């Protein structure tokens, strides 16, 4: 029987990063993945393919709507070749997952393809296509991730009533895509198909889209999406989703309790994701799950069984690839006797719509709830030369800082390239910068990053220069 210092079940961003860090720290490491490709949800059916389709559809929209204004004329009709678009996306996924295979072999990590299930606290059975194998490990990390969740009355048929996984490989552009859930995944994929020509209706239970983020971001994104002619049905409680031939009929109650019926040809159910522990046989090792089916862990991500840890989407916290990665690194370093730390308040959140939305730290709503005395500095993208040059004028940067100490408590932004710009907010907050610290740093001109400096100036005695 093969023996390891550490065995990791699941090869998503949590699992594969944990494996690399364990190997770097000198541990004999194995990783077990039930699918034939490594990389988990993120690389196969999540972050990477969705961004590939967002990029392709963005190019198409630019070509149709904006090229002429830029002085670029394309003779003849500009058409979408969806098959090619999906094939390019798959090419990106294949290249990326192969990259993980390379990293596993470079770091001398043994990869097992099969379903991993606990035999006991130190043994994992691997059910492969061609039989069973058991390995022994001193420590085991559960990194089995998550799966799309649904509502109890919805029957996901994977043809017309679909999850994000199917939405990433449709064979036709929907005529009318109904998206249930106005969160990150629904809005990103909704925008892909809107750009490609579908009518898109979002049905959201809460009174705003991207409910977890700062209210100002929800408001601005809703404004832009309405301009893009995405229909937002807020405060709508979906009560049935039925398929009739090629039609999908969604019924919901609006705020006043009136029934609203939407008829489309596809319905994307994006109401969140649930932790995935099926087939893991956690009971055999005595590992406890919490009341929401997540693996229960302490602040060191250790389960109730001392040599078993869990990371990523399968434990509490934001379901984000970079959160899973940080946790993978943390557990590896704990196993090596180090004392790492994650500040969960500083895990940024990003929505890759256009304009992009990104945030780190506390929202204004949270600060109010916590009774913190804060000040706000906000700067609109449209006041930037860079934004006008590329015609990306929607959005703003908003900085929240402590009223007395000027320490930055939250950075919230919507606009072009905010997914990348938020790193400045994270860096500043990681070093406990004040708004004035940011405002005194030189920001290259012309860039979108100047909005961060200007928002910091606005938070520092209302000193923005360009507005
Ligand atoms: C459409 C979409 C877009 C997204 N976009 C982003 C984004 O832009 N940015 C971001 O940060 N996050 C994004 N996410 C979320 C992100 O994908 C997850 O947070 C991340 O993948 C979680 O990583 P993980 O390692 O915990 O689990 P996963 O990536 O889910 O990986 C778990 C792996 O474990 C395997 N596994 C499960 N059980 C077993 C078993 N018993 N034996 C062997 N293998 C097993 C699974 O097959 C899977 O490969 C997106 C998700 C979706 C669906």
UniProtKB/TrEMBL annotation:
Annotated catalytic residues: 445
Binding positions (FAD): 51, 116, 144-146, 313, 319-322
One GO cellular component term noted in the UniProt record for this chain: cytoplasm
Annotated keywords: Disulfide bond, FAD, Flavoprotein, NAD, Nucleotide-binding, Oxidoreductase, Redox-active center
Domain of life from the UniProt record: Bacteria
Name assigned to this protein: Dihydrolipoyl dehydrogenase
GO biological processes: 2-oxoglutarate metabolic process
Pfam families on file: Pyr_redox_2, Pyr_redox_dim
GO molecular function: dihydrolipoyl dehydrogenase (NADH) activity; flavin adenine dinucleotide binding
Residue span, FAD/NAD(P)-binding domain: 4-328
Catalytic activity: N(6)-[(R)-dihydrolipoyl]-L-lysyl-[protein] + NAD(+) = N(6)-[(R)-lipoyl]-L-lysyl-[protein] + NADH + H(+)
Domain Pyridine nucleotide-disulphide oxidoreductase dimerisation as annotated: residue spans: 347-456
Cofactor(s) needed for function: FAD
Transmembrane regions listed in the UniProt entry: none
EC number: 1.8.1.4
Cofactor binding summary note: Binds 1 FAD per subunit.
């Amino acid at each position: 029987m093969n023996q390891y210092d550490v065995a990791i079940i699941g090869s998503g961003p949590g699992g594969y990063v944990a494996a690399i860090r364990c190997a770097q720290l000198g541990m004999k490491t194995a990783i077990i993945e039930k699918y034939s490709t490594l990389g988990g949800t993120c690389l196969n059916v999540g972050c990477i393919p969705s961004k590939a389709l967002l990029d392709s559809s963005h190019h198409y929209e630019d070509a149709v709507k904006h090229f002429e204004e830029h002085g670029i004329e394309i003779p003849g009709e500009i058409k979408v070749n969806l098959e090619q678009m999906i094939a390019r996306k798959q090419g990106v996924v294949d290249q990326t997952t192969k990259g993980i295979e390379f990293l596993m072999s470079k770091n001398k990590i043994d990869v097992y393809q099969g379903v991993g299930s606990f035999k006991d606290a130190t043994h994992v059975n691997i059910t492969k296509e061609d039989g069973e194998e058991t390995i022994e490990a001193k420590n085991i990390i559960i990194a089995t991730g998550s799966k799309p969740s649904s509502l109890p009355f919805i029957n996901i048929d994977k043809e017309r009533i679909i999850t994000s996984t199917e939405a990433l490989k449709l064979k036709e552009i929907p005529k009318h895509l109904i998206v249930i859930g106005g969160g990150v995944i629904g809005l990103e994929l909704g925008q892909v198909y809107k750009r490609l020509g579908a009518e898109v209706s979002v049905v959201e239970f809460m009174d705003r889209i991207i409910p977890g983020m700062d209210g100002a971001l929800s408001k601005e994104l809703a404004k832009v999406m309405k301009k893009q002619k995405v229909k937002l049905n807020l405060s709508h409680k979906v009560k049935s989703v039925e398929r009739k031939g090629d039609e999908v009929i969604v019924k919901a109650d609006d705020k006043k309790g009136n029934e609203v019926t939407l008829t489309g040809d596809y319905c994307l159910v994006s109401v969140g994701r649930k932790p995935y522990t099926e087939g893991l046989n956690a009971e055999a090792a005595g590992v406890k799950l919490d009341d929401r089916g997540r693996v229960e862990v302490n602040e060191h991500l250790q389960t109730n069984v001392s040599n078993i840890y869990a990371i990523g989407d399968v434990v509490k916290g934001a379901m984000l690839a970079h959160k899973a990665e940080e946790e993978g690194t943390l557990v590896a370093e704990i196993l090596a006797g180090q004392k790492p730390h994650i500040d969960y308040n500083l895990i940024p959140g990003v929505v890759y719509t256009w304009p992009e939305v990104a945030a780190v730290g506390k929202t204004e709503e949270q600060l109010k709830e916590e009774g913190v005395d804060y000040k706000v500095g906000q700067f609109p993208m449209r006041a930037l030369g860079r934004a006008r040059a590329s015609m990306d004028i929607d959005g703003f940067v908003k900085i929240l800082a402590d009223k007395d100490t000027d320490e930055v408590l939250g950075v919230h932004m919507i606009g072009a390239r905010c997914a990348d710009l938020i790193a400045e907010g994270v860096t500043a907050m990681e070093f406990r910068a004040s708004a004035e610290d940011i405002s005194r740093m030189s920001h290259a001109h012309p860039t979108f990053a100047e909005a961060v400096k200007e928002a910091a100036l606005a938070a520092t005695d209302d000193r923005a220069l360009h507005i």
